[in-house]
Amino acid sequence: MAAKNVRARVRDVPGPCARWGDDDADFIREVLDLVGDKWSVLIIGTLADGPARYSELAAAIPGVSQRMLTLTLKHLQRYGLLARTAYPEVPPRVEYRLTVLGRSLLSTVLALAEWSADNHAEVRRNQEAFDGATAVD
Amino acid sequence: MAAKNVRARVRDVPGPCARWGDDDADFIREVLDLVGDKWSVLIIGTLADGPARYSELAAAIPGVSQRMLTLTLKHLQRYGLLARTAYPEVPPRVEYRLTVLGRSLLSTVLALAEWSADNHAEVRRNQEAFDGATAVD
DNA sequence: CCGGATCCAGTGGGATACTG
DNA sequence: CAGTATCCCACTGGATCCGG
After folding, report:
1. pLDDT at residue number B22
2. Same domain membership, residue B52 and residue B16
3. Of A44, A134, B1, B46, which one's alpha carbon is 20 to 30 angstroms from that of B133?
4. Which residues form the HTH hxlR-type domain (chains A, B) (predicted)?
């Protein structure tokens, strides 16, 4: 597959305009579909250190509704980032854990989180400067 | 700032449930607000190799509407990832380029794109397997 | 305990037409 | 050329109730 080295391709383009192939755009969409929503990253991060039950996830992630937790879990499971194991006991118990694929995404996603932690102060300053500038003039 | 090492914190937690601080959740939101939408990453990637004009961006990014291009550009500019330079000529010319901050995000974001390029085949297989399984039984 | 079903408000984002 | 303004629809995501 030609898109293995997106970075190299983009930087090699000589002209002023690095045209995206539709493939590349699709890849971006794909990854955004995985982690671009409100809760996926939180769930993946929570599962980083080991399996967790549904109610543990609900407790660990502040503000998530049952609906969105269920939905996002299913979403991640569908893409193979999460494995779901239901134990047919009474009361029922369900465990979620990261797959190998999920763990590989974890490191990348945490890199993003670290970037945000490193730079959020500057981002806020920029916001305020921008808003102030547009408001003044 | 305490959240510099999100990864370390998450992995160090001994229990089954790594509770997110609200701070961490906020950081995630912040970064998703930056790159979680449909066009930001494409724009950042297009600007990777140098400045580009509005119309060049429009041409380079297939499927983007004027509205969304303008909106996303302003969004990225507000956060300080992009710089906008308008030349008061006739006809008007406007150039967008990545700031240092934007370039620092670029590498992280391209890592995501590479992950997606590497794993999208497996992701698709998982999707189909999942859909098939749920459809069968 | 887990999560499906339903209802509903807010918003993301496309198409189109217009302006400086 | 480089946007802005408006309409509109589909989807996201929260609250709540219900079922296994």
Report:
1. 78
2. no
3. A44
4. 17-124
- pLDDT tens per residue across span B74-107: 999 999 999 999 999 888 999 999 999 999 999 8
Q: Which pLDDT value is given to residue B9?
A: 56
CA of A123 to C1' of C10 (A): 26
A78 beta carbon to strand D: under 7 Å: no
Q: With contacts defined as CB-CB under 8 Å, which chain B residues touch A37?
A: 32, 36
Predicted TM-score (pTM) of the model is 0.86
| Same domain (yes/no): B20, B51 | no
pLDDT of residue A8: 57
Is pLDDT of A30 > 70?
Answer: yes
Q: Which residues of A touch B3 (CB under 8 A)?
A: 117
For B74-128, the DSSP string reads HHHHHTTSEEEEEE--SS-EEEEEE-HHHHHHHHHHHHHHHHHHHHHHHHHHHHH
Distance from CA of A87 to the nearest CA of B (A): 17
A31 part of a folded domain = no
Domain range for B55 is 36-136
Contacting residues of B for A62, CB less than 8 Å apart? 20, 22, 25
Confidence (pLDDT) at B137: 46
Strand D at less than 7 A from CB of B125: no
- B9 and B75 housed in the same domain: no
Within a domain: B40: yes
- From the list A16, A59, A126, the residue facing B17 with the nearest CB is A59
